[in-house]
Specification:
The chain is about 75% helix and about 0% strand. It contains twelve helices and no strands. It has helices at about 5-25, 30-45, 50-60, 70-80, 85-100, 105-120, 130-145, 150-175, 180-195, 200-215, 220-230, 240-245. Helix 4 packs antiparallel against helix 5 and helix 11 (about 220-230) runs antiparallel to helix 12. The protein is an all-alpha fold. It is rod-shaped. The relative contact order is 0.05.
């Protein structure tokens, strides 16, 4: 016969086992809707890592759920809030590949551009992210012309073009100051042709005209100085441009 103490131990052990078994049976798997709500709650509390875990659980456990698109988008949003812009862009692009006709597709395309903008460098450094942001905003404008974010995208497009123009001008000044006039001409011509509304276009024309003069292309130099005088009558470069025009050999262009 078992000692009383041992029998009491077995009874207690069985009771604990029964209690644990009952708890396990009472637990149920979360629904896709619950995973989504829990993720949203964690995100609103700025617990982005935990939010992404709930969204990912939804994606892992419910391959047929209609919530999958939103969960995928929210993972990207959560990464963006955490300033993980490279990873966020990857997730937005994944969303676009999987759900190009979804109601959030336009916003995802906008956010792809914003990820690039967040990684832009100073205007005198490499502008790859600036160019890619500009392309992404233009894609939004082309593919989702009725999207409510279009006006904001247009503002960013103007800002990005000004930034690229400033970069082109910075490089042109660098070549000009080094006396590399042929290289400066290439940059300045691109600036004048591609960014005709650049804020420092009068300076660009003056440097371009001077570079042509240094290259002894007097016809081109006189044409550029004439353009500057005609288009920017109040520019601070007017007097110097007129002086240059007077000094150049006669090319048949009459100075008024």
């Amino acid at each position: 016969m078992m000692p009383l103490q041992y029998r009491l131990y077995l009874i207690l052990l069985c009771g604990v086992w029964a209690l644990l078994s009952g708890c396990a049976k009472s637990q149920r798997a979360l629904t896709a809707d619950e995973y989504l709500r829990l993720g949203d709650t964690q995100s609103s509390r700025n617990r982005q890592q935990k939010a992404r875990e709930y969204y990912q659980e939804l994606l892992n456990n419910y391959p047929e759920s209609h919530h999958r698109a939103v969960a995928q988008f929210n993972i990207a949003e959560s990464l963006y809030r955490d300033k993980e812009y490279l990873e966020a862009r990857f997730e937005y692009e994944k969303f676009m590949e999987l759900h190009p006709a979804h109601g959030l597709a336009g916003q995802a395309q906008f956010q792809i551009a914003m990820c690039h903008m967040q990684q832009m460098r100073h205007y005198d450094r490499d502008q790859q992210h600036t160019r890619e942001a500009l392309q992404a905003f233009r894609t939004l404008r082309r593919q989702y012309p009725q999207n409510l974010l279009i006006p904001e995208a247009e503002d960013h497009i103007r800002e990005l073009r000004q930034r690229l123009a400033a970069h082109e001008m910075s490089v042109a000044r660098f070549y000009y100051n080094k006396g590399a006039y042929h290289a400066a001409i290439g940059r300045l011509l691109n600036l004048v042709q591609v960014y005709p509304k650049a804020p420092d276009l009068d300076e660009a024309l003056f440097l371009l005209g001077t570079s042509y003069r240094e290259e002894e292309n007097f016809v081109k130099a006189q044409q550029i100085f004439r353009m500057l005088v005609d288009r920017f009558p109040t520019s601070s470069y007017i007097s110097r441009s007129r002086a240059q025009l007077r000094k150049l050999p006669d090319t048949g262009i009459i100075l008024q």
